[in-house]
UniProtKB/TrEMBL annotation:
Catalytic reactions of this protein: 2 5-aminolevulinate = porphobilinogen + 2 H2O + H(+)
EC category name: lyase
Gene name in the database record: hemB
Protein name: Delta-aminolevulinic acid dehydratase
Enzyme nomenclature, EC number: 4.2.1.24
Assembly, per entry: Homooctamer.
InterPro entries: ALAD (IPR001731), ALAD_AS (IPR030656), Aldolase_TIM (IPR013785)
Record carries keyword Lyase: yes
Organism, as annotated: Tianweitania aestuarii
Keywords associated with the record: Heme biosynthesis, Lyase, Porphyrin biosynthesis
């Protein structure tokens, strides 16, 4: 162990004189003391696993831009849900890759009771009844233009989109979804979904608001995964948040809570740790981050090239969300982390 020196420094005072004998390294000198004073911890209870769905049977389609991530057929998704439950992961979020023949301008297939999302929800509930299921009522996987809303004369029409999103949310609740998480960022969608769920007897179905979903460069691999990357006409800046704005994000969150949201989500995650912290400090409600595909892929790519320690970077990135105030994180790393924490 280094011996504490009392020798004066070059400016004439000893370290004890400079610090007033407050040596902050004391609690960092051993493993046991570092563990004793650790302020935040990552556990399996913090993990939500986003998975991608595809029609068919016994399918595991690899996604080149997301190493280790697959599109899963409903039967395989049910098996993976059982594995996730055995690892202690609390919840799964599902996102579909829809056959282009089922897409149209209004995303009408989102409202079908037997669409891919709803079939997967029922299968997962049968296979792993104790795991939570989070579904997104946004229309972008179902539209032929890749937008989250209904496109009319080059404009995403808000109110008509909300009606469609509500209809999709109701079918998801009927299939067994535990949390509706609409990511479309239309005005009024949270209140409209809450009213519809309550009127239909789904008072216990919660709403996780994508209250602060930013118009980000980090979504690319996700859009490939759900099959919208080549379809998108224009951009989503008229409804997603400007990455430069934090006060606007606070107003969006406040509005969604007033309309009945039970919890908030920030998307993407790592570039917006300041937003996570402000939301948690201001509203003190359950707050989540989505570590999106671009964040995941950057860590994976750098690790594959030997530029960083992938495992350490993975854990550090997730711990950063906890430090910022997150109650949980949607992350494609979820099963890897769960296995690591259990070892």
């Amino acid at each position: 162990m280094d011996r504490i020196t009392r020798t004066p420094t070059r400016i004439g005072r000893s370290v004890d004189e400079i610090t007033g004998s407050r040596r902050l390294r004391r609690t960092r000198k051993t493993d046991w003391s570092r563990r004793l004073v650790q302020e935040n911890r990552l556990t399996v209870d913090d993990l939500i696993w986003p998975i991608f769905l595809v029609d068919g049977e016994n399918k595991r389609e690899p996604l080149p831009a997301m190493p280790g991530v697959f599109r899963l057929s409903v039967d395989m998704a049910a098996q993976e849900a059982k594995r996730a439950a055995s690892l202690g992961i609390p919840a799964i979020a599902t996102f579909p890759y829809i056959d282009h023949a089922l897409k149209d301008q209004t995303g009408s297939h989102a409202c079908h009771a037997d669409n891919l999302i709803n079939r997967a929800t029922r299968a997962i509930k049968d296979a792993a009844p104790d795991i939570g299921i989070i579904t997104d009522a946004a229309l972008d996987p179902f539209t032929d233009h890749g937008h989250d809303g209904i496109l009319r004369d080059g404009i995403i029409v808000n109110d008509e989109t909300v009606d469609q999103v509500v209809a999709a949310a109701l079918e998801q609740a009927r299939a067994g979804s535990d949390i509706i998480a609409p990511s479309d960022m239309m005005d009024g969608r949270i209140g409209a979904i809450r009213d519809a769920l309550d009127a239909d007897g789904f008072q216990d179905v919660a709403i996780m608001s994508y209250a602060t979903k930013f118009s980000s460069a980090f979504y690319g691999p996700y859009r490939e995964a759900i099959g919208t990357s080549g379809l998108l006409k224009g951009d989503k800046k008229t409804y997603y948040l400007d990455p430069a704005n934090s006060n606007e994000a606070m107003r969006e969150a406040e509005q969604d809570l007033a309309e009945g949201a039970d919890m908030l989500m920030v998307k993407p995650g790592m570039p917006y740790l300041d937003i996570i912290h402000r939301l948690k400090e201001t509203f003190a409600v359950p707050t989540f981050a989505y570590q999106v595909s671009g964040e995941f892929t950057m860590i994976k790519a750098a690790a594959a090239n030997g530029w960083i320690d992938g495992e350490r970077a993975m854990l550090e990135s997730l711990l950063a969300f906890k430090r910022a105030g997150c109650d949980g994180i949607l992350t494609y790393f979820a099963p890897d982390v769960a296995e690591l924490l259990a070892s």
